[in-house]
Specification:
258 residues; mainly alpha; transmembrane; membrane; transmembrane helix
Length: 258
């Protein structure tokens, strides 16, 4: 034991040594005998890949069911409420320190309603576009998973900074475009022009590369022995990226159909 500058601790080593050498009294032994047996608390299970896959599949199935029901009953008026509720729940999940599965499930249902309404409208104008967008989204997701597992593209600090910087830049442009559209000013980012097509391609590329960051974060959490409950949050993160990717692919296909 190292010497401490605290006067109360300077003789601690001697005190501990004398206590260890002293024989215990009969009263002390009796008290120890009558104490209940100590039971170690159950250790929380560590995170596994199966946990993430299971939770992700669960919320995706809920989103698909909600989206299919919305499109089937043509409840397109639920698009705006679904988007607003999904955004609020996403912010709560992101900034809430404790992981809440009910909030994540609520987010999945709200986004499912929103995507179902938007997809239904697009599919009325461009028949078959929904199936194309779904296949395209799954294809990009599967392709990025293969790229990550094979190590074709490694997640480095530099790549991470580039992806995050690109996402921040795109988010700022989207917000600026939204504000300008409220004043009737067309910035050319969402009107089907060449600039709009290029912008959608950039968004799709950033969303695709975001999966690499998601996969790497999951791998790191598993290696560090994160609790199994964090699978909910990783499933939420994957769904956020999937929603963004799907919307951009749907929009790009719409441009191609015009």
């Amino acid at each position: 034991m190292q010497s401490s500058s605290n006067p109360a601790f300077r003789n601690m080593e001697k005190v501990i040594g004398s206590q260890q050498q002293a024989a215990p009294s009969a009263q002390y032994l009796d008290q120890m005998y009558n104490q209940p047996a100590y039971e170690a608390p159950a250790r929380e299970r560590f995170l596994t890949v199966d946990d993430v896959v299971t939770k992700t599949a669960m919320i995706l199935v809920l989103a698909v069911v909600a989206g299919f029901a919305t499109a089937w009953f043509q409840a397109y008026y639920l698009a705006l409420p679904g988007a607003l509720i999904g955004f609020v729940l996403a912010m709560v999940v992101i900034f809430k320190r404790k992981i809440s599965p009910p909030l994540i499930i609520g987010y999945a249902l709200a986004e499912g309603v929103f995507l179902g309404a938007i997809t239904g409208v697009f599919n009325q104008y461009y028949p078959g576009i929904a199936a194309q967008a779904i296949v395209g989204t799954l294809g990009v997701f599967g392709g990025m998973l293969v790229i990550y597992k094979t190590g074709a593209i490694r997640v480095t600090p530099r790549l991470t900074k580039m992806i995050i910087g690109g996402i921040v830049g795109v988010a700022v442009l989207m917000l600026f475009n939204l504000v300008m559209s409220l004043f009737g000013i067309n910035m050319g980012l969402r009107d089907g022009s060449t600039m709009a097509i290029v912008f959608s391609v950039i968004c799709i590329a950033l969303a695709a590369f975001s999966f690499l960051l998601d996969f790497d974060a999951i791998d790191q959490a598993i290696k560090q022995g994160a609790p199994a409950n964090t699978a909910w949050y990783f499933a939420f993160g994957l769904m956020v990226t999937l929603v963004w990717l799907y919307l951009e692919i749907l929009r790009l296909l719409g441009y191609a159909r015009q």
